[in-house]
Predict the structure.
Amino acid sequence: MSERIVVVGAALVDDGRLLAARRSAPVELAGRWELPGGKVEPGETADAALVRELREELGVDAEACGRVPGEWPLKSPYVLQVWTARLRPGSAAPEPLEDHDELRWLGPGEIWDVDWLDQDVPAVRQTLAHLGAAEGLT
Ligand code: 523
């Protein structure tokens, strides 16, 4: 039986908007939108991985706030977990430094305007159910 590897996705929320990132690679995912993030490395906690990935991919100083309940299957052995995150005071604004070619802050009513990766759709739906009203996203 193979090990499962957790991929963390960030529900990065700022001022009542959720950040979506358009993948530029690999070719089968390019052009589709995701909650930015990446693989948790051996010995790393999920929330630390999230902060690292957001720094590497978007150049931001973020903090993980809490996990959205649930787990969604990706291509084996990967599974997707989602954490809510915020920019720390003084953080730079996110920029697509690697893996992405466009970013969008989605306000209420705009969440489904982008073509999310199939596997991110249930994760985004659950994220909205989890924090939508509190964050003004729904
Ligand atoms: N997904 C995915 N949705 C989603 C993320 C963050 C990742 O479906 N919100 C998938 C895409 C890849 C796998 O999970 O098949 C790993 O994500 P990736 O490539 O962003 O992870 P990294 O950045 O850790 O990968 P390396 O380039 O290998 O370091």
Observations:
- The longest strand covers residues 62-73.
- The beta strands are 5-14, 17-23, 33-34, 37-39, 62-73, 78-87, 100-106.
- The CA atoms of residues 61 and 91 lie 5 Å apart.
- The first helix runs from residue 46 to 58.
